[in-house]
Amino acid sequence: MRVLLVNTNIEKAPYPVPPLGLCMLANALADRHEVKIYDGVFDEGKGLEALVIQFLPDVIGFSIRNIDDVVQDRQIYYLDGILEKFITPVKRITKATIIVGGSGFSIFPTEIMEITGADFGIAGEAEAILPVLLDRIQSGSSTSDIPNLLTSFSKKVQKGSGFAFLKPAAANFSEIDKWIDFSPYLVKGVYSVQTKRGCSHGCIYCTYPQIEGRKFRTRSPGDIADEIEQAHKRLGYITFEFVDSTFNDPGGHAESICREIIRRNLKVRLRTMGMNPRHTSDELFDLMARAGFVQIDATPDSASPRMLENLNKGFTLDEIEKMARLIKKFNIPTMWFFLFGGPGEDEVTFRETTDFIDNFVNPADLVYMNAGLRIYPNTPLHKLALEELRFAAGDSLLQPSAYYYSKKISKQVLNDLIRSASLTRPHCIPALETAPSPQMITEALELRRLDGFEEPMFRTLIRIRAKWRAAGKI
Questions:
Q1: Residue range(s) defining the domain that contains residue 117
Q2: Are 18 and 176 contacting, i.e. CB atoms less than 8 angstroms apart?
């Protein structure tokens, strides 16, 4: 069959993200089907209809990565654009079978099946499911026993209320640049690498355990190093980003990956998303520095002991402070992320977090401050919101108005506290201000060109922000 996989994500802030999942899926299908990927990040749907007319696909799969941008006061809602730019135009010109999936779809599968009018939907990971579904479509056989599947006539996830998590073909290389034009990502983007799936933690707002399962399923360090080494040879100068929910879980896995990269003397630039403070050590940070890490994200969400417990983070303030000391010791540029307004948040817990920022975070590192917790279905936060009568059991949470704010502090007071904290701390950025102005970007690019900076862009922007603030420009 001819299969067209469509990346409907057009978000490019803070940097464009290549369609890792679709590339893994293409690899899982390539031995049996003719597969193409349409990457909408830069083209934004403009060339999709022409490709459909030229390729004449039998099946078109649309990947929905995000529902909204998780900033309530900005409320960028992606689904309307996905329908307008991708799904609706395609449905007008083809009778191909339409399948939807992706992480955003997997959070709201029933609602999105209704909105898109798709023939099928796959909730959770699709590498093992889509090949089976294509065989059934081709043969005209029943699909009723396929797990994780939704159909146009039965918009409920088959095989029980949860998802089935299979040993994925996710261990396969993504080979992103084999499937899409990677040249636009070489300027500002990253090459995404997944070292595992699943998350065993229980943060009250998080959907990772629902989408990927509650047990870690790891790839071997050798496979991961092979992928990085081969992509580095093909692409040259590019940053590799580990996109796991937490890089250093389970304990010891990250160390093994770093050792393999060091053993091969790969000389690559690496960065990673969330670090779990509980599993940090001198050994880990030494290995990360030697392996080539140029940036990390630290995502403790709070530095208040009470809020860490209320959010069910699974680590302590002492462990966060230890991680912060290690970050300073090894001088690894870091973006810190804090969420304010969860259950029990008040002015005391807010100031506990800002005290931590003042005492432990390098002023050259970015601190992202967001107010309100997005409520997703079937999370502990959703259950709490129902118990507190903030929503009724049948209410949809799809629209980006479903946020939780503590009863102990108003939304306005919380936003004022964040704004006030950012006025005296140039490295602290409210969520609404995370997109720098074109003028600031232009000055940053020129400064980096003249001085040959290789530091992360956020550090350059922080220095310009501090200069502009001192001059009264912001």
A1: 2-151
A2: yes
